[in-house]
Design a protein that fits this description.
The chain is α/β, with parallel strands linked by helices. It has one domain (about 5-220): Rossmann fold (3-Layer(aba) Sandwich). It is built from eight helices and seven strands. The chain has helices spanning about 5-25, 25-40, 55-60, 70-80, 115-125, 140-150, 165-175, 195-205, and strands spanning about 45-50, 65-70, 85-90, 100-105, 125-135, 175-185, 215-220. It has a seven-stranded mixed β-sheet with strand order 3-2-1-4-5-7-6, with helices on both faces. Strand 4, helix 5 and strand 5 (about 125-135) form a beta-alpha-beta unit. Helix 1 (about 5-25) runs parallel beside helix 4 (about 70-80).
Length: about 220
């Protein structure tokens, strides 16, 4: 995955990015809820792959910085949320000169050419006692998501590769991260009356359902 191609893809969809997210608003509300459960309001938060800034703003950080490879995404985010800081940067090699209590990486891993490099960059920016919180797509859902994209029901992803949680854990642990929490969430990403809420609540309660969920959630601390 060439970085120029990734940047070009997200610059190309930036104008329609929020419209695409609105079409899947139920999923994105659930995703934001996952992060709010783990990150207290008023925290210092760095978001890697911030898009147009909506998730970061929803966390109500005391200090909020969003980083994205797409200049157009950053431009839109800065205009929407002037209280927050948005920067153009490479998730695999950024150096901001500060640390954060929380670093979040929402549905970004699949677009990176070198995931281990992202972990190394994040490690340099995590405060003592801080947490790295990531969400990513469960590869089991690949056929469903590819079909949804072909039918125009889902935001175009561009080139990507979805990695299983076990691979991400192994990579993180090799770089001195300690898993502090992990599990699947979002068994039904569409707002189907009665059914969606029941399935998603069941996935939170029942461990045997979590491997089938759409979203892999992982939280790490440093050794």
């Amino acid at each position: 995955m060439a970085k120029e191609d990734i940047r070009g893809h997200f610059d190309g969809i930036a104008a329609d990015y929020d419209r695409w997210k609105e079409k899947s608003s139920y999923y994105y509300r659930l995703l934001a809820g996952i992060y709010r459960q783990r990150i207290p309001e008023g925290s210092s938060v760095l978001e890697i792959g911030c898009g147009t800034g909506t998730l970061l703003a929803s966390l109500r950080p005391g200090r909020g910085v969003g980083l994205d490879i797409s200049p157009r995404m950053v431009e839109i985010a800065a205009s929407k949320f002037p209280r927050l800081t948005f920067l153009v940067g490479d998730a695999e090699s950024f150096d901001l000169g500060e640390t954060f209590g929380f670093i979040i990486v929402p549905d970004v891993i699949e677009h990176l050419t070198d995931v281990a490099a992202m972990f190394r960059s994040a490690r340099r920016h995590l405060s003592p006692g801080g947490r790295l919180v990531m969400t990513s797509v469960n590869p089991l859902w690949a056929p469903v998501l590819h079909l949804a994209e072909r039918l125009g029901l889902k935001m175009p992803e561009g080139e990507h590769r979805w990695l299983p949680a076990a691979d991400l854990d192994a990579m993180a642990e090799a770089l001195s991260f300690v898993p502090t929490w992990s599990g699947g969430r979002i068994l039904c990403p569409k707002e189907v009356p009665l059914l969606a809420r029941a399935l998603n609540e069941a996935a939170e309660r029942c461990a045997f359902l979590r491997p089938a969920c759409l979203t892999q959630v992982q939280e790490y601390a440093l050794h």
